Each structure stands twice: as C-alpha cells, then as structure tokens.
C-alpha cells in the first residue's frame, strides 16, 4: 500500500527523533509546546545549513558583511518598528475547548480540504473572501467566514466561537532596574531590527558603499498560539536574514535580483525545481512596497520558506524619528547630471529565511524508504540523500573485525582525515548493519578496512546513494572525500 504524504511526514518526524536530529524540548517533563531541541546530528546539519547560507551571502559577495546583534534591544526599537502596535494575529477562541486559534489558519485549512475534495470553486471563493477580509482588517468578516463554512474546533468538535481579536505575538520580560520604569523589554520577534540600528556603525567602520548588505543569523521569539507541523511553527526559532541597502528608485531592480539569487541558492542543493514556487503577497506589511515568498511543497502543501521584501526606507526613517539620530548616507557618486547623489535614507531589500523550516525541508527532501528486495530475498533501507556538504558526518570508518590489527589501521585513517572532516568510527555489528545505520543518517561515504588493507594500504569505499563500492588507496582518501564535500560544489 502506497504511503500518503501524511505518512511520509510522520515517518520523517519519527526518524528525526530516533537518529538524534530533533527532540521535543523538556521531554522528560512531557515537553513544552512548540519548542524543540536539536540533537547531536541535528546540530551538525543545522550548522552546515548556516555555513552554506553564510558563505553564499557574505563570503561570495564583496559588498555584504555579517554581524551578530543582541537579542535584547531598547524598548523604543520595537515602538519604532511598529511591532508594539501592529505585530498582531487575528485570534479566535473556542468556548468549549478553551483553545485559541489563528482565524486565517483555520480558514486556510478549510481551503486545503476543499481542494482535496475537488471543490476548487469553493476553495477559490473562500480564498478571495479571506484575502479581502485580511486586506481590510475586517475581523467580524473573518468570524462570519468561519461560521459560514461550518469550521469546527479540532479539539472539541464544536462551533462555539468567540469574536475574532488581535493578539500581539511578542514575548515581554523585565530587565533589571530599568531607567524607563514602566517600559517592557521584549525578546526580539525578528533579527532585522538589530541590523537597522547598526546601519551607520557598519557603514562607517567598514567604509561600505551603497549598494551593500548586512547579514545576520540569530534566534527570534514569537508567542505562536498554534503549535503544529513539527518545527514549521515554533516559539523559539532561528532566522538567516540579509538587509541590502540601495539607492531610492533602484529598489525594484534589486528586488528582482534577490528573488532570482535566492531561488538559485535553494535549487543548488538538488531539490526538484517543481517543488518551489513564488507567492506574491496579497496584503503587504506596513513597511513594504513589494513582497514575495519562496514556497516549498511540503507533505502538507506549499508553505513559505523564505521571504523577499522591498521594505522601502520605512525602518531607517522610523529609527531616525524615534532616536533623533540621522540615519542618512552621503553618496558622492555622480548621477546623470554629473552631480553627487548627496544625502538620502537608503531603501532596503530584505531576504529572510527560516533556518528551522529549511532544516525540515532538507530532511523531507532527503528522506527515502527504498525496497531493495531481489526475487526471494527481502531487503529495504531508509536513506537520507543529503547533499555531501550538508551531511552531519562525512565518512564512517569501519574496521571489518575488532581484531588482527584492523582497528589500529582504521584509527590511523581516522587520525589522517579528522582534521578536515567530521567522521564517525564504528566496529559493532555486521558490516551490512553498519552500512544501513550510516545510510539512515545521510553519511555519504563508508570506508571499510579489511585484511587486504594491511597488505597494500587500500580500503573499500562505499557510496551512499548508489551503494557502489570501489577499492582505493588510503593515500587518495583526502582528495576523494574532499572533492565531494567541498563547498565549491554548491557555491560555484
């Protein structure tokens, strides 16, 4: 019986826990909703995704630099950015289950069900009505749509709903003895503002010329009410963002440039092109004049992985107004009239990718259950077809037996390669079982040391995806592995 998309997703979640990629946070205390820990292999894969992004953004662009700003920021930052007054989601409560839901997500789920049931017209009709209500911030209309389409609470099964209300998503906390007294301090809901408030610091200290970008990877926090779809929607998550500062009037050109560049970054990993699509925003954020999402087809439908936004000069002008400090750039390049462009507040193009979503995308895309049965012999394997650059472990060192000097020879090879690559050493179980374990965690190479290795300094190297084996000289291993896992393969 063929597996459904839902089965596949459940299997990926189970696989992630079984092999040390992702665990429920505080699991021994029954967990914390929408919070997850990355295990020993998950941390490696996550770091490799971060490295790929950082290298492609900072190392490969002469005019982009990276920073690491603090999670805590002055309360006025969030007033200026609009988060204090406008960072809200339309929420609705079920009176029987006492559960709270995002109204737009309840409607989106209904739209997906209509599509699955072949009711395309109903889906399109509801989508248009919901978009209109969100555009006009018509909360009563959102509730009317929920009632009209008979949407029930997933927990209680009843349709006993409250009115739709706006709910601020920021976590607030106390910060020592603050001079501001009553002002709350927030955990940042995004990393972008740390870049904007450092715009002049970076520009002046780095002698940066427009156009230039500032990149950052960091934690952000949102009080998401709906915990679902594993690590898709979490309260503590990580973002990889880049703000690209351009001349006013050139924002359209750079918006199109970064749309194309970012899609190329995703496709370089070997993901099927048809799995990606652009989705233009119907309702633009208060700071944007253009916005699109790069969406990936997860087992539960197309969902946003990365956003590209043309933020105009909103952020820098807001911080200029609230701080009283000028956030302008003096451009002494000459315009068409032969005069300097002079002082102006730059426009900004933002690329923002959710690291956790990218992690989930990578796991789903790589996961495969293969039937290897041959006639009467039943066999199968679960394999993660991770790009070699992203694989947590690059090679497994496997002595055929625990005796006859094979472990000692294996350790010599381990010592030779470990300075350049993350390796694992295993001598327990049959060689076949060890191969299967390495397939399951995405290790591209298995290096088997046998008795012949002691005679002629050769080993058997097994390739994960093809399962083909070849005899190679030990002295050639650094080049064989190095060529396959080199970042050049992705960045070029």
From TrEMBL:
UniProt binding sites for ATP: 222-224, 304-305, 354-357
Molecular function via GO: glycine-tRNA ligase activity
Gene expressing this chain: glyQS
Organism in which the protein naturally occurs: Pedobacter flavus
Similarity annotation: Belongs to the class-II aminoacyl-tRNA synthetase family.
CDD domains recorded: GlyRS-like_core (cd00774), GlyRS_anticodon (cd00858)
Protein name per the record: Glycine--tRNA ligase
HAMAP family according to UniProt: Gly_tRNA_synth_B (MF_00253_B)
Subunit-level organization: Homodimer.
Presence of the UniProt keyword GTP-binding in the record: no
Domain Aminoacyl-transfer RNA synthetases class-II family profile span(s) in chain numbering: 150-399
Binding-site list for substrate: 102, 190, 237-241, 350-354
Compartments where found: Cytoplasm
């Amino acid at each position: 019986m063929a597996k459904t998309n839902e089965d596949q997703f459940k299997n990926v979640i189970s696989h992630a826990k079984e092999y040390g990629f992702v665990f429920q946070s505080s699991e021994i205390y029954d967990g914390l909703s929408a919070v997850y820990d990355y295990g020993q292999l998950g941390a490696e894969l996550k770091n490799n995704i971060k490295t790929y992004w950082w290298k492609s953004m900072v190392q490969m662009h002469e005019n982009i630099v990276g920073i690491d700003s603090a999670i805590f920021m002055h309360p006025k930052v969030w007033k200026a950015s609009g988060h204090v007054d406008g960072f809200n989601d339309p929420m609705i409560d079920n009176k029987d289950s006492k559960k709270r839901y995002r109204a737009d997500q309840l409607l989106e789920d209904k739209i997906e069900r209509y599509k699955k049931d072949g009711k395309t017209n109903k889906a399109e009709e509801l989508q248009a009505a919901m978009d209109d209500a969100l555009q006009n911030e018509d909360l009563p209309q959102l509730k009317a749509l929920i009632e009209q389409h008979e949407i029930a609470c997933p927990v209680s099964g009843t349709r006993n709903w409250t009115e739709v209300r706006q709910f601020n998503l920021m976590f607030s906390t106390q910060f020592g003895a603050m001079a501001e007294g009553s002002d709350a301090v927030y955990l940042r809901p995004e990393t972008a503002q740390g870049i904007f408030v450092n715009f002049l610091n970076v520009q002046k200290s780095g002698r940066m010329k427009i156009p230039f970008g500032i990149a950052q990877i960091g934690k952000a926090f949102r009080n998401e009410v709906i915990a679902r779809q594993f690590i898709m929607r979490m309260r503590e998550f990580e973002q990889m963002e880049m703000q690209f500062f351009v001349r006013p009037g050139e924002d359209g050109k750079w918006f199109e440039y970064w749309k194309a560049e970012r899609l190329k970054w995703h496709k370089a990993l070997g993901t099927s092109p048809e799995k990606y699509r652009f989705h233009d925003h119907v309702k633009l954020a208060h700071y944007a004049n253009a916005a699109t999402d790069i969406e990936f087809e997860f087992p539960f439908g197309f969902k946003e992985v990365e956003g590209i936004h043309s933020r105009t000069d909103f952020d820098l002008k807001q911080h200029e107004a609230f701080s009283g400090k000028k956030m302008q750039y003096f451009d002494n390049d000459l315009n068409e009239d032969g005069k300097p462009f002079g002082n102006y507040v730059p426009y900004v193009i933002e690329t923002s990718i959710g690291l956790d979503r990218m992690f989930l995308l990578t796991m789903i895309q790589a996961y495969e259950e293969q039937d290897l049965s041959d006639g009467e012999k039943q066999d199968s394997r679960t394999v993660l077809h991770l790009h070699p650059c992203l694989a947590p472990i690059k090679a497994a060192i496997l002595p055929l037996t625990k005796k006859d000097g094979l472990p000692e020879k294996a350790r010599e090879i381990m010592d030779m390669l470990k300075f350049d690559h993350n390796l694992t050493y295993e001598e327990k179980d049959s060689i076949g079982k060890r191969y299967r374990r390495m397939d399951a965690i995405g290790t591209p190479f298995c290096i088997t040391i046998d008795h012949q290795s002691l005679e002629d300094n050769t080993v058997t190297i097994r390739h994960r995806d093809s399962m083909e084996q070849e005899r190679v000289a030990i002295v050639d291993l650094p080049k064989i592995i190095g060529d396959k896992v080199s970042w050049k393969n992705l960045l070029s």
